[in-house]
Amino acid sequence: MKFKKIVSYFLLFVFFITNSFPIIALDSSVDGELERNVSEDSKEEKAPVDILSAKACILTNYETGQVLYEKDADEHLKIASITKIMTSLLVVEAIKDGKISLNDMVVASKNAKPAQNESSIWLADGEKMSVRNLLKSVLVHSANDAARTLAEFIAGSEESFVEMMNKKATELGMKNTKFTNASGLDDDENYCSARDVSIMARELLKCNWITNYTKIEKDKLRDGKTDLTNRNKLIITYKGCNGLKTGTDEIAKNCLCATAVRNKIHLCAVALGCDTSDDRWKSCTNLLDYGFNSFQPIKANKKEIEEEKVNVKTGKKEFVSCRLKDENKTYLVKKTEYGKIKKKIKLDDLVEAPVEEGRVIGKINYYIDEDGKNKNKKSQKIIATQDIVADEGVERLSFLYVNGQLWKNFLWGEKFFKS
Question: pLDDT, tens digit, for every residue of 122-143?
Fold first, then answer.
């Protein structure tokens, strides 16, 4: 019995000594040479697509943001009514936050009155219309007066709404964008880029009901007296197209952000500054065709990740189990490279309790070893990266807990740590 007491108190002493020193943070990122952005690789690639007269374009997997092809994607350009993607995004967020609802009735002000050549639904001063029909008018018919009316309803004035638009653009990492109005009317200081269009489009599409509007071909308002016609002809001519927005004026020329889904692959094509309307349809069609024909999805082996464990310091459990953070997301790889894909799982060697469920504790990286030797890290091209997180929480050891376990061990010979 005396020997057991000595052992028990020695363990207690060791616990407090080791706990008094901070744990050294372990780097769970991939080696620096592997931290190359996919978009950087795509700049070097000559994709076999005919982008016609587009000044700038980009093709992305809008589920993950992965860039599949780009050309001058950061150039500052006019985007005309594609601006309404951001306007619609702020409307959707106001609905999500409970600030407004689709059924709210909005009174149009004299500020909404359209100019003679504007795209509009001819809202009259004092006319009432629901948020639902105004949003539909923005996304289907590209109505400027509906956009201004929604802006005033949400922010009190279009000027205040524009401040919200630019703040949201900054939050989303849209580095080449400045909005000056809610509709996209031409202004010397109003600009965006193809990449930034794809970013705000991806954010809007996180709203799972928005494509119920962007896919509408024709509709009516005011008891059938007003026709709405979708300006995006690809929703009719391109299989799987579910949106998203056109833009046209003399300076911006012909622009299009087209989204489509086939076989669970979600793509977003943006073409800006096309000479003719036909050019924008063909440019986005060719970009989407390139994506669907040339890429296929890769997914992590969930079971393999779940079998991994990470050691825990000063925790009530010796280790924590793992899972993928976004296990349902689809990452894309070229069909010609699919057989060359390798993966690397990198986990923290040790984490300190408490460990919260969902805490990032590692990564899985898919890469291609371009020189075939798997030794030169500079030749390893990253295809996709997914976070690995803790599948459970682990509480930190306390004095009372340790003391209780020691006494159990002393009295009944139970195991000190339980896993």
Answer: 999 999 999 999 999 999 999 9
